[in-house]
Predict the structure.
Amino acid sequence: MTGVETIIVFTADGCPHSAALCADLCRRGVRFVEINLSHERHRIEELRRHCWEHRLPVVLDHERVSIGFRGASSTFQDVGLDDL
């Protein structure tokens, strides 16, 4: 991260809510860093430092944590991360 990006988004392959959130952020020109847990499973510990929720997407914006997008989210089990 370069210091300009302030938003971190935890996503996973197969999560339609993660895809919709990232598309919305891109459409609005919001800079963010995406951490795809399907490809970076070791980063689950980083997510757990901020929340224990097992749902995606998760947005970290400084000290604020938001779960889901437009009222919807996917469970870890839904996207194949249930073993984490």
Observations:
- The CA atoms of residues 1 and 35 lie 12 Å apart.
- The radius of gyration is 12 Å.
